[in-house]
Structure formats: C-alpha cells, structure tokens
Amino acid sequence: MSAVASGTGQGWDEVADVVVVGYGAAGSAAAITAHDRGASALLLEKQDPAAHTPSIRMSGGIVLCMNDAEAGARYLDACAGGLVPEAVSRAWAARAARLRGWLDEVAPQLGLAHVAGPERPQFPGADAVEGYQAGARFRHDPESGMGRALFAALASAVEKRDLPVRWHTAARRLVVEDGRVVGVEVEQSGGPAKIRARKGVVLTCGGYEFDDRMKAEFLPAHPIYFYGNPGNTGDGVRMAQDVGADLWHMNRVVGRAIAWFPLDDGRPQGFMVQMDPPGYVLTDRYGHRFANEHGQAQLLHDFYHHLTVFDSDRGEHPRMPCYWFFDDRRRRAGPLTWTQMGAVGVGMYDWSPDNRAEIDRGWIHGGDTVENAAAAAGIADPVAAARTVADYNAGCATGVDAFGRPFESLVPLEEPPFWCVPLWPGGSNTTGGPRRDERGRVVDVYGEPIPGLYAAGELGQVSGMLYPGDGTNLSEALCFGQIAVETALDEG
After folding, report:
1. Which of 125, 133, 12, 16 shows the shortest CA–CA distance to 75?
2. Which residues pair with 327 in a beta bridge?
3. What is the SS3 assignment for 428?
4. pTM of the predicted model, to two decimals?
5. pLDDT in tens, 16-64
C-alpha cells in the first residue's frame, strides 16, 4: 500500500492517494476501502477524540440492507419521489445487497441481527428491505450497543489497518489545479496546512444542521432544530459550492418532533423524545390536536411535515412549537428521551431516570390539571387544551380516535399531576448538499463531474423525499463511502 507522505515540498504538508474529510460512517468506509484496494488514505476530523460525536455514534446503529438488488432499487426509487435519478437508487441498492457481507468481513465482532424492515411496506420492492443491528437484541435493550458499538467496530477496523487520522483538523477550502480538485486547505492546532490528494478528495463531513444561516435559507420553516452531531456545520456544502458544485435536497431533513433545551452553560441541546409508553397527546399552540401522534411515538421519519405548516391568515407556524401532554404515569415510567442514542448516548447530557432533574430545570411544565399544565407551558388557550385532552380520553374509552390512532396506543391521560413539553420540528440531520451521481462523483450545475471530488453520507444524501426505513442514513453512508473511493481510484 502506498503510504501517506509528509514534507513533500511544493507547499504540501502531507500527501495521500485519497483524502477523506470527516471521520464517521462514510469516512470509515471510504478509508477502509482505499486501504483494502492498496491505496493510501488520510482521514481528517475537526473534532477532538474525546469529543468525537459523529452521527453514527449517536444513532441506533441500524443499517438498512437489501436481500434483492432489483427489488430494492424499485423501493428506493419509490421513496425518492422523483428527487433522485433511478441510476443512483440502483447503485445504492446493488451495494446495499452486499453491505451485510462487507460488514461481516470488516467487523465480524458485531454479530449483526435482523431487527427492522421498510418504513413504507406498501411500496413496490419493500420486501427487499432488511435492517440489521449490532448484537442479538432489539434496539430497546440498552445492552444492544446501538451506534456506539457499530462505530467502535469500524474504528477498530481503521486502527487495524493503521490508517492515519488527523484529529482537530478542520477542512476549510478545496485546492483546484487545472480544473481538478487536488487537495484540501486545513486548519490544525499548529496552524494552517495543505494536504494533497493524488486520486481524489472524498467529502464525508455531514450536513448543515448546526449552521443557522443555511437552515434559515434552505429549510421549509424556521427555526428547525437538531439533536445530531454538533460538528455538522455545513463545511462540505461551502467547500463544494466554492468549486462549482450543484446542490440538491437542501430543503430535506430526517425529521420528527424533538425537544430543544438550554444547558447550564447556556448552550442549547436537542433531544430525541421517547413518547412511549402510550398516554400522549400533541397539540398546536392553541391547544388543538392536528395529527395522528402514533408515527411520532414510533420514531417514523416524516412527522415533521405536520409541524411546518404555515397559517397565512395568522402569519405564523402554529405548530412551532407543538406541545406534548402526558400524565404522571408516563413521567414515572422512565426518561422522556432515549438514553442509548442522541446526546445522552454519547455523554453530552445525563438525563434523570424519573425526569425530576428536567422538571427542576424548567424543561417539563406541570400542573394539577391539564389546563394548568398548558398555562405553565405557555399555550395560548389552556382551556382549549384541556378540552382537547378530555376529548382524547373519551375516544380512549370508546376505542375510536378522531385521528385514527391504533387501539393499543389509546391510553388516557388521567393520573395527576399533568405535564407538558414544547417540541420543535427537527431531527437527526439534514440531507442536502452537493449533488452526486451513481458513482459518488460530485457534479457541477451542468451535471458534469468535478474531477477529483467525491462525496458520501449525509452531505448530499441520496434518499430523496421519504426515508426508506431504519438504518437508511448509515446504509447510504457505508455504501457510497465505498463507491466514491472505488471511483476515485479507478479514475485518478
């Protein structure tokens, strides 16, 4: 294998065949693939090892695979809703059909178990979708490892191959010579540096969920918040734009309702919300229900569409925030967030088992009646909120819900005190970024590949309109991390 070189002259501080910007799922797959094909790879990561929070570590660790490439391509194309070329979906499905085998080879210690299926079982080809997770238990078991176990296994594969990682190294600009991307300008603890890529630069540095300007410009409503990797600040979008890349999916997110609270240092933090066990109602700011909450409780990936509705008569988004009502039975049942995933899963916050610490922080608003809890949370019409919960409880008694909730989810709110939490549209990540083709090449506004530039993962993700199922993000990142590097080595 060709080694990474240092001090090579001509203004370059280091040289590798492939330079990978971002050390997460896509970056790991890219670097491993380069090594296993006999090339040198250098991983650049702007975070420090002690504060490394790639999306894969914060995730549930499920990876979407396919048992049939042709059927899988039909399913992905249906989920894309016309936003992704069929050739791209076909390339993803073909690689996803080989993904479990690749993981078994690269990280056999994972012991992958089949735990999930398609999120849209009514779409053609859905039977091809299989979600796998580390360990032999389902994601509700805190011992199953989640995304931490998956990334630890990939990181072990990176270390086993002696692949270099340059920590605390922030990529700032791409270097172009004679119309080709040939390297990256970076900022390190010791100052600026230039790193050359003989074969190509692969951008695997995530989306822009923590860049407020980009979110305000591109997302369908504002504000939208996220609980994913705080290091995802749009670096790859800016660098790709700077060299002429086209953009796509900039208005797409992997979304649902999330909680957004200030920590002790004043820094805001997003949290996944764990609405189950049943006994929940969501209202708008005027105290009215607006959707079937079961999808949110099941962590489906499209509920945020309900939240971003704009009321042109009032000139506002009446569901931003929306409000989650529950009773003390749910409060006692356990944390209101997933402690194995998200911010809590990587140690950014320690959520209390009975939610008492969060009540004391003022994150959870309570009252001896629903009306009082609604007033404490700031709902404009607390009386309407109380009436809404009463109507919901009546539906629980008859087994018929006004919004079609399944019978097993119809648990009344009847044990005081009652609680209310404001929730915002958001989720784990944005999916927009530089447009790419089926070979992982970043293309310009005319659809022509930009020589030497490739991308994978949440930066310009290829999932399109609807999220295909649990593990989509990780599947796409691992598949296109491999595809992008293979293309770079074949073309470079």
Report:
1. 125
2. 418
3. strand
4. 0.94
5. 999 999 999 999 999 999 999 999 999 999 999 999 999 999 999 999 9
